[in-house]
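DATA CLASS: polypeptide
GOAL: derive C-alpha cells

***
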Amino acid sequence: MASKQEAHNLNIYRLLRIARDKKVKELANDLLVTPAYINAIEKGDRTPSERLIRDYARALDVDVQIIKTFSSTSVSNSNFEHLLLYILSFPFHSLSLP
C-alpha cells in the first residue's frame, strides 16, 4: 500500500491540474470551491462528490472515466496505473516537439 506522500504524488487530480497548467486558485474558481478544498482533495484528505468529479473532468477537459479509473482513492492501483501516473507527473509543456 502506498504511503500518504506517495498517494499525494500520484494523485490524478493534482497530475491533471498540472498537465493542464492550472493553478490551484484558478481551478478552485472554475469549480466554485475553495483552494483549501482542492488541496485537501489532492492530498487525499477529502474525496470529491460525483458532481465535483464531473466538474473536474469538464474544467480539465478530460473524460470523467479517466479520473474515476486512476483516482488515488482506489486502494489497489496496479503497477500500470502507477507507471502512467508517474509519466503524467512530468510537465508536458516543457517538452519540445519536432
